[in-house]
Specification:
This protein is mainly α and 63 residues long. Helix content is 29%, strand content 0%. It has helices at residues 2-8, 31-41. The radius of gyration is 19 Å and the shape is flat. The model has no long low-confidence stretch (mean pLDDT 83).
């Protein structure tokens, strides 16, 4: 958790409502368990598609 805080300067274990400390209860790493957990929450389980590439930056637009 220290790495997440050092990169984003956000304490991921701080409660956004009361600013108290939260406990890490579980860490889900198995793909089947992740799919089951997301399905139970009603969240999508498939990987979103990629966005199309942007076109090149036109230098004349900044002049």
């Amino acid at each position: 958790m220290a790495r997440a805080r050092s990169v984003t300067d956000i304490d991921v274990l701080e409660c956004p409502a009361c600013k108290g400390r939260m406990k890490l209860v579980a860490l889900v790493t198995e793909p089947g368990n992740i799919t089951r957990f997301l399905s139970a929450l009603g969240e999508p389980t498939d990987v979103p598609g990629r966005s199309p590439n942007r076109g090149p930056v036109v230098a004349a637009a900044f002049v």
